[in-house]
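Q: I'm building a small set of examples for a reading group on sequence design. Run inverse folding on the following structure and report the sequence directly after it, with nothing in between.
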């Protein structure tokens, strides 16, 4: 019994690769080679070196003293906000650009919603001098001008998706279309633990450096590798997968996943996939997703762009269904308050995604001696305007 993926990419009943026949050669090439490539010494050496010298790892595991005092428990923050580009996403794009090179690809495509994954992808493409095309919904291009500018400055071409709701899912469709048309020279960098097998497992492995470091750092600080709980916010689920990875099969460590309730679970404006989702297929993977009675994907809503996704990765669907993970949903309002509170208590302005994870302490009580590690997935610079408007700062 394991909570990791099996060879076919299933986590319990979730996962797999439900893809159109025309995409099969691309996905199969990646599937048949990813584990062997990741095991190669030359791959590991370059990956570790870039994580250290370029991304700035290991990121600190910081004991949040004033926050801990306020909530009567021991809270450590895993500082992914200090990664180059300001969030955990770059761990994955560094891994995938090296994978692309090993596969002999010289053209990268990606999809992006808020632009964070687009920026992380454009960054590593600049680093390696590889052509980069980022598909982005036309509406999102308007809403996320600073990230569009960043991608352009990094040398990427940003292509608007003009169909459907002109947001993330339409950008994903465009990227898939591109990949079908360019199967030989192109690698598709997916930004979270979603998509057809092997993406969820591959991305989780690239992000697993987070829990590998937590184990070492906690051993040094507390004399044990195991916290009582690991907490992370879940959009697609990549920062959470990285923070849980080495603890998945260790029942001593509680797993807490935090989703965006938006304006409230029953408000019709929410992204709380575990609470609202039903089994279905999205982006090539069988998982939980928000859908109408006849299976059309529902537009999600959250104040935080990174959690605004109608599905959840198959690892998380299985953690929910099996009861291994405790799932909590947090409203916009509670998240915003928690973000402001962390700024005032610790001098750290978190991304609004991360603020959702911090907000659980208001209602979810822990014991005084519990060690609770919160994955601080990103910094709040990108969200300053939202904080300013919300609090009239
Ligand atoms: C993108 C993003 C998330 C959500 O993505 P996951 O794949 O669920 O981790 C969370 N936090 C930050 C800071 C992000 O940029």
């Amino acid at each position: 019994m394991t909570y990791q993926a099996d060879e076919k990419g299933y986590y319990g009943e979730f996962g797999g690769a439900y893809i159109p026949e025309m995409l099969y050669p691309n996905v199969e090439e990646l599937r048949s080679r990813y584990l062997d490539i990741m095991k190669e010494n030359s791959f590991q050496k370059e990956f570790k070196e870039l994580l250290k010298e370029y991304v700035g790892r290991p990121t600190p595991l910081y004991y949040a003293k004033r926050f801990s005092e306020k909530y009567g428990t021991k809270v450590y923050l895993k500082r992914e906000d200090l990664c180059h580009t300001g969030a955990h996403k770059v761990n994955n794009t560094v891994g995938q650009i090296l994978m692309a090179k090993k596969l002999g690809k010289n053209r990268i495509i990606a999809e992006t919603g808020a632009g964070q994954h687009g920026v992380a992808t454009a960054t590593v493409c600049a680093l390696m001098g590889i052509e980069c095309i980022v598909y982005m919904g036309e509406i999102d291009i308007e809403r996320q001008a600073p990230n569009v500018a960043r991608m352009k400055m990094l040398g990427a071409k940003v292509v608007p998706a003009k169909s459907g709701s002109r947001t993330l899912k339409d950008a994903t469709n465009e990227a898939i279309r591109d990949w079908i048309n360019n199967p030989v020279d192109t690698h598709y960098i997916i930004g979270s633990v979603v998509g057809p097998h092997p993406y969820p497992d591959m991305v989780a492995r690239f992000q697993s450096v987070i829990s590998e470091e937590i184990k070492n750092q906690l051993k040094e600080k507390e004399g044990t590798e195991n916290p009582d709980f690991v907490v992370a916010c879940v959009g697609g689920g990549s920062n959470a997968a990285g923070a849980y990875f080495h603890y998945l099969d260790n029942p001593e460590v509680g797993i807490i996943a935090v989703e965006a309730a938006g304006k409230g679970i029953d408000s019709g404006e929410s992204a709380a996939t575990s609470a609202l989702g039903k089994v279905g297929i999205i982006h090539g993977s069988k998982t939980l997703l928000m859908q109408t009675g006849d299976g059309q994907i529902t537009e999600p809503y959250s104040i935080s762009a990174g959690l605004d996704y109608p599905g959840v990765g198959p690892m998380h669907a299985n953690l929910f269904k099996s009861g291994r993970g405790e799932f909590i949903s947090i409203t916009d309002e509670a998240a915003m308050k928690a973000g402001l509170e962390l700024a005032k208590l610790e001098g750290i302005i978190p991304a609004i995604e991360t603020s959702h994870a911090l907000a659980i302490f208001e209602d979810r009580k822990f014991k005084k001696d519990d060690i609770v590690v919160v994955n601080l997935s990103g910094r709040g610079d990108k969200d300053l305007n939202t904080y300013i408007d919300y609090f009239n700062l």
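The first helix runs from residue 24 to 39.
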